[in-house]
Amino acid sequence: MPATLPALEDHVDVLIVGAGPAGLMLANWLSRFDIKTRIVDKRGTKIFNGQADGLQSRTLEILDSFDFVDRVWRESNHMIEICLWNPDENGKIRRSDRIPDTIPGISRFQQVVLHQGRIERFFLDSIKEHSDIAVERGVLPTAFEFDDAKAADFAAYPITVTVRTLSEEDAMPQQQQQHHKNDDGQEAPVSDGLFRSNLAADDTDDLIRAAETNARINQAESIKAKFVVGCDGAHSWVRRQLGYKLEGDSTDYIWGVLDIIPITDFPDIRQRCAIHSASAGSVMVIPRENKLVRLYIQLQATEHGQNGGKVDRSGITPEIILRSAQQILHPYKLDYSYCDWWTAYQIGQRVGNCFSLKERVFLAGDAVHTHSPKAGQGMNVSMQDTYNLGWKLAHVVKGYSDASILKTYETERKQIAQELIAFDHRFSRLFSGRPAKDVMDEEGISMSEFKAAFEKGNEFASGIAVNYSSSVIIAKQSDAKVQSNQVIGKQQLATGIVVGKRMPSVKVLNQSDARPWHLQELLKSNGRWRIIVFPGQLATRTNMQRMQELGAKLGAQDSFIRRYTPLEQSFDSVIEILTVHAGSRKDVELLDLPEAFHPFDNKIGWDYWKVYADDQSYHEGHGQAYANYGIDSAQGASIIVRPDQYPYRLSSL
Amino acid sequence: MPATLPALEDHVDVLIVGAGPAGLMLANWLSRFDIKTRIVDKRGTKIFNGQADGLQSRTLEILDSFDFVDRVWRESNHMIEICLWNPDENGKIRRSDRIPDTIPGISRFQQVVLHQGRIERFFLDSIKEHSDIAVERGVLPTAFEFDDAKAADFAAYPITVTVRTLSEEDAMPQQQQQHHKNDDGQEAPVSDGLFRSNLAADDTDDLIRAAETNARINQAESIKAKFVVGCDGAHSWVRRQLGYKLEGDSTDYIWGVLDIIPITDFPDIRQRCAIHSASAGSVMVIPRENKLVRLYIQLQATEHGQNGGKVDRSGITPEIILRSAQQILHPYKLDYSYCDWWTAYQIGQRVGNCFSLKERVFLAGDAVHTHSPKAGQGMNVSMQDTYNLGWKLAHVVKGYSDASILKTYETERKQIAQELIAFDHRFSRLFSGRPAKDVMDEEGISMSEFKAAFEKGNEFASGIAVNYSSSVIIAKQSDAKVQSNQVIGKQQLATGIVVGKRMPSVKVLNQSDARPWHLQELLKSNGRWRIIVFPGQLATRTNMQRMQELGAKLGAQDSFIRRYTPLEQSFDSVIEILTVHAGSRKDVELLDLPEAFHPFDNKIGWDYWKVYADDQSYHEGHGQAYANYGIDSAQGASIIVRPDQYPYRLSSL
Predict the structure, then answer these.
(1) Contact call for B590 and A74, based on CB within 8 A
(2) Do A516 and A453 fall within a single domain?
(3) Cβ within 8 Å, pair A337-B102
(4) Is NADP included in the keywords of this UniProt record (chains A, B) (predicted)?
């Protein structure tokens, strides 16, 4: 990788522009395949504090599929309970409700909070462990060409991006904002907290000018790419090259953010809280790791002070933001000695009109959806964009798949972006509105309506609710009509599994060593499609007979598995077969099953990690897989699962 | 730390000789205190494969208290089920029993297996994170002096150890033993697998001679120490300086060890198995991480070939060991292409006659107990030796404790060593003996007796059964007589907690954020004593009243907590108070409890991590702490817990 001394021209399979969460997720996915990838970022350093922090249950499942969720789980603050605070009849705030933060049972992970910089660190470590891809920082794209004639040829490099290396000085944003109050309680001088806020102007053009006038290290490099993915944020340079737009609007609501170690008598400071004061505005409390608490604080004074369009930034300081919080939390006291980060933003929702140029250039993350940060969605939806895209790109580059699967990126992710924006639009207005004094107060917000929106939002916010529409890689039951009498999409075969929604997880026991695993832990993100066979009770002769026949078919020299798998690769390298049988481990011997279910290798013998039992464990209970998945243990079922853990179709055996 | 260019003289609080598991555990403990520690090892490198691998539940609890058990849990192979295989009436081996490997409910961790080199890596990372202690490798102690006149003065340095640095060549053992069989099935040339086996001679004297004749880098350094701990193995140089002995005997039983990726049709190769063949000897199967399996294989041919005393090593090769295994496993086939490590050893049991010289020099690990490896005990008991010793040394060095606590090292750990040796003596004979053909076969081993020993062994092998005797830091109920009518040792106050046995763990909810924690997770190894207050239901006025009085007493300027805590240190730095109240989190507000239970700090506000509830969690059930600990929620109790998680005494409130 020419990270330090770039050649004048390079050819890559994928060029990623932007090394935030979306870009890093993509680089991480691609690190699992042997395809040439480069990732550049105009910033000279990674971030150290502030920014996004919320991680959905679904995001944690994805990070687990890349083998590093344990680092997140350990360092993060776990969000367990939400408290709603409203004004009582005297206008004093009081706790009105407690609700669980993550809906119980929805996932094996609960929502957690951890600073974006740590997530990025874990991605970087994971990328390094699996590849020689390295983030090239302080590298700015300055020119873009697209050769339309090559767009349909997937061996060709239709895109040319010119990049230039910034001087260290230009590439370093002033991001250090931590400050302690002086002993007299006055603020120590602080730097600008708004440099990445949506109240700040885009600095890309300034950086390009700086690069062009910097003769010393400013060597232009021309990168020819099969694919380019713009993960370069709300001011996306890639989006600008394509001429695409973010569509939507802004509100007048301005919110400040403080990451502080609070000194307070407010009793729920270590809970997630939504606090509506009678007339001073609202606060969201997000307890963080390392004793920090993030406060989202509505800034009423600033709203009144603005005169259309962008707000005057100069009036916003940590002291002003704190004062607003103190008014909202009154009569409780709030102060701090240590502030880790602060910013402010104007609430708005926008979504990209187009996510791709001919399935060769893609946009992801903030480049195609921006909204208010309070719902803890931004970083998650951004990472999930490229989690959706990564394996598709890789499979097309490797020749495993037809390029038509790339169209599903826009159909699947634009739907999610629109749902997100709609949710945030409604939610942020409910949050920023004044609580209704009584049922006659029509301008006020009903607190019961707010609570209902909050609870509904929780399901959305888990990321588990995502339900992709029918496509070449989502075969829902309703499609069966179109596809004549093929045995696909039989949703009733597994009533607990929804084609289009990620595979739910329950514990199963490894047949060979009795160890319990969450089924999802077996669905690692390594690019493989999977057939999960649920053969039912194997003690039943007919089920065993059916399993023998299936094994013979799958293992045959002309089986579709061998057809899709390059000759030099192992049997399970493109499509892996997993089995979960009903009933006791003790009644089944692994070696009685056909080889297709536990492939043999001359050097390492049988594969002991493919067959599982839906059985009682010694230490961790019974997963009840058949019951939870709604599969009849007499009839069985098989499920084809995409490399990103979404069931593609259900079939009978 | 003078790791590279040693001064001619140095003064240290603690000098550790030997950087195996016992030495590293001790260095790791001491890294949590600010005391001057050096650790030297005569070997030039850490180990990369082979050696010990079994980790008990109790060891995992300890590693969790140092914050890195997650790395072990993730990489290790989990041992879930044991299968016993015996000859049937025709002499063919068959599976006779399945039993759980770790007794269900005994710990939140089950026994796992992971290569010693990884454990050592985790210790090194942990030590580095908390201190500037660095293992000095290739550094050999060559002279020892003890100034008896200074033995009682704990400010003095009574011990002088001279150390010399070995040349790289001398310090590097030939430990690379991995080999693949050639394509014709013949062994590739392999190096000597026995260099650290008890069949090999002690090489310390050779190394000392090498050091003395190596003029180039051989600068002698004189280290003056308050304490020296010999963690330098079965051939302990420190033990030799003290003139102490290992007492015990050897057997005629020789066993080989193979770490291989097996190619086999033996159905339980991924289970822990104890296999007795009719007349070809026994095999223990230990499935390992990375598809490896460790086989302990009885070598009958070699036994017959020996002529008293040490066995002829030259006859032992991986091929010979494999052939024995094939005979024992017949009619199942066994072969391998890849061998990671191999060795052989002669079964024997020995225990040190003395563990300490005047509580200034201590011996730990293999220096005071050696036995056969099959029970998976050695590395565990060795680490637990220094886990017992570390905090005591640190507290005496720091002046927190009277030196009398150091005497408990020998009383506590010699008892364990003797139990271990007795267990291994019995167990290894049962394992190496020929199975009885029938009840009349008096020379044969009864397989039901073996099974009973195995099951009993499992409790011992978990490390949870350890029960320390009464001492200045273990106040059992029976001691109450001696200590008149003081309210100590009231075992009936908490029938589920045994003074002398490690504090059992159940889940409790953090009062401030509802997060469930295993109580043991709150007992981090940071050197603090802890008072765990179980005040019962705080909704009851009398219980709350009692809590107020207790808080006032503990928080008072003349409380024993402040008396034991240096003035400049925080209130909880030597003795920490944790509270677990009965009943609902929702009925209690943290700030209604006295400050002693949630200390205030000017810079960071209240402490939200001291008070817990025995309540239902949203996602992880109900820990039933009062019920499990056998504490009456009307009466309550308080438990003083040592820094190593052992309850010191129970009291009423």
Answers:
(1) no
(2) no
(3) no
(4) no
List chain B residues with CB under 8 Å of A291.
604
Give first-to-last CA distance, chain A, whole Å.
Answer: 47
CB A85 within 8 A of CB A94: yes
Same domain for B448 and B533, yes or no, is no
- The label of the residue with tokens 């010693």 reads B116
Instruction: Return the active site residues of A.
Output: 53, 288, 296, 373
Half-sphere exposure of A241 (CA within 13 A, CB side): 24
Q: Which of A205-219, B245-259, B595-609 has the lowest mean pLDDT?
A: A205-219
**Same domain, residue pair B217 and B360:** yes
Question: Do both B431 and B378 map to the same domain?
Answer: yes
Report chain B residues whose CB lies below 8 A from the CB of A586: 98
Taking only the tens place, the pLDDT of each residue in B364-417 is: 999 999 988 777 788 999 999 999 999 999 999 999 999 999 999 999 999 999
Looking at residue B441, its pLDDT comes to: 83
Q: Which residue has the tokens 């297709």?
A: A596
- A229 contact partners, CB below 8 Å, separation of at least 6: A14, A15, A16, A17, A23, A26, A238, A361, A362, A363, A364, A386, A389, A393
Instruction: Report the CATH number at residue A644.
Output: 3.40.30.20
User: Is the residue at B433 inside a domain?
Assistant: yes
Contacts of B604 in chain A (CB under 8 A): 261, 263, 291, 337-338
In chain B the first and final C-alpha atoms are separated, in Å, by: 47
Chain-centroid distance, C-alpha A365: 9
Summarize pLDDT for B488-524 with one digit per residue, the tens: 457 789 999 999 999 999 999 999 999 999 999 999 9
Tell me, yes or no, whether A484 lies in a domain: no
* Residue B479, amino acid: D
Give the residue on B whose Cα is nearest the Cα of A261: B604
Residue A549 burial (CB count, 10 A): 12
Q: Considering Cα of B52, then B56, then B60, then B63, what sign does the dihedral take? A: negative
Backbone region of residue A185 per phi and psi (left: phi > 0; alpha: psi in -120 to 50; beta: other values): left
Q: Is residue B477 part of a domain?
A: no
Using the beta-carbon criterion (under 8 Å), do A514 and B81 form an inter-chain contact?
yes
Pair (B296, B206) in one structural domain: yes
Q: Is the pLDDT confidence value at A305 over 80?
A: no
Distances, alpha carbon B356 to alpha carbons B10, B163, B243, B364, in Å = 23, 21, 11, 9
Domain residues for the domain of A164 are: 8-174+181-305+312-462
Whole-structure pTM value: 0.92
Concatenated DSSP letters for A472-537? TTB--GGGGTTTTT-S---GGGSTT--TTSPPP--EEEETTT--EEEGGGGS-SSS-EEEEEEEEE
Of all residues in chain A, the one with the smallest CA distance to B516 is: A80
**What interface predicted TM-score (ipTM) does this complex get?**
0.91
Q: Are residues A79 and A146 in the same domain?
A: yes
In a shared domain, residues A223 and A127: yes
B261-274 pLDDT, tens digit per residue, is 999 999 999 999 99
DSSP letter (8 states) at residue A430: H
For an interface test with B, give the residue of A75, A81, A183, A260 to mutate (most B CBs within 10 A).
A81
Sole residue written with tokens 């699967």 = A405
Please count the structural domains in chain A: 2
Q: Which residue of A has its CA nearest to B620?
A: A104
With an 8 Å Cβ cutoff, the interface of chain A facing chain B consists of 70, 74, 77-78, 80-81, 98, 100-102, 104, 110, 261-265, 267, 269-271, 287, 291, 337-338, 510, 512-516, 586, 589-591, 602-605, 608, 617-619
The region of weakest confidence among A43-52, A257-266, B318-327, B453-462 is A43-52
pLDDT confidence tier of residue B484, bands split at 50, 70 and 90? very low
| Mutate which: B71, B513, B600, B608, vs A, most A CBs within 10 A | B513
Tell whether A486 is covered by a domain.
no
